[in-house]
């Protein structure tokens, strides 16, 4: 029988049998928890707008005679590394800002900072190390993309405070998490276009939707300590709001695909994503925390489906 020491070295909202605990030495575990390596859904949701944008830009590049398959693959690898590093740095920063709040919320008080397994000074050093990885990744792109990436830091810095002054912190999360929808396009084509801006807006709407579902896990604790969220704002009308947010995501994404010249395969995948959105809306029970978490995580499949549509659209468009 496995000796888990009552799971005192784990966090309550992540699987206790995660690869982090099977492979990494125990002294690394608190840092892996700070970076959320044991909860990959965060970096996956951060990565998909980058992948969508880069692949959509590659579709557009074909018609401009600028397509390079090797460049696209290289960029996808960079976005994967960057998503893991910057999501980890962002989560560590968020935990530093929310240290006192996390001590009052049942789901988060077992995290490394509120539980005392990592000091604030060591957490700051860890942020710096992850940020250096992110900077290395960023410097592989053209200078316009580097500048664009640096601009995102202001939004990232603001997000953890948003829940203190607005009922729409999920909007600020969307601004930060969707930035890759601009980066991917700029990395391939060296600038921005209306298609990229539409894709960014679609990603923001998508993020507000899925993070509202996620926030319903904590709404009772949030109400007690005065933390604001769209879950509390929407309340029993969450399903109607999701219809609007996910519908807006699909409309904006459809328009972006048309402007970029994506072919039928991309639109078929988008139709599949619409079915997944409908399934989330029908299944949603805002009072069932475990179901909210499962529906939130299902958005990884949405991201993958849209990417596969764009990727295969690209393959069939190559002369």
Mean pLDDT score: 90
Structural class of the helix and strand makeup?
mainly alpha
What helical percentage do the residues reach?
A: over 70%
Portion of residues in beta strands equals under 5%
Low-confidence stretches: 1-7
Total count of helical runs of at least 4 residues: 16
Give the strand tally: 0
Order of helices and strands: HHHHHHHHHHHHHHHH
The oligomerization state is single chain
For the structure shown, list the relevant keywords:
single chain; 319 residues; mainly alpha; 16 helices; 0% strand
Written overview of the protein:
With 319 residues, the protein is mainly α. The protein has 16 helices and no strands. The protein has helices at 19-23, 29-34, 41-63, 69-97, 99-102, 120-138, 143-165, 169-177, 180-189, 194-215, 219-225, 230-234, 238-260, 264-283, 289-297, 299-317. Helix 9 runs antiparallel to helix 10 and helix 10 runs antiparallel to helix 15. The longest helix has 29 residues, at 69-97. The termini are far apart.
Short synopsis of the structure:
With 319 residues, the chain is mainly alpha-helical. It has helices spanning 19-23, 29-34, 41-63, 69-97, 99-102, 120-138, 143-165, 169-177, 180-189, 194-215, 219-225, 230-234, 238-260, 264-283, 289-297, 299-317. The model is unreliable at 1-7 (pLDDT under 50).
Q: What is the topological layout?
A:
Layout: H1 19-23, H2 29-34, H3 41-63, H4 69-97, H5 99-102, H6 120-138, H7 143-165, H8 169-177, H9 180-189, H10 194-215, H11 219-225, H12 230-234, H13 238-260, H14 264-283, H15 289-297, H16 299-317
Helix pairs in contact: 3-4, 3-9, 3-10, 3-16, 4-6, 4-7, 4-9, 7-8, 7-9, 8-10, 9-10, 10-13, 10-15, 13-14, 14-16
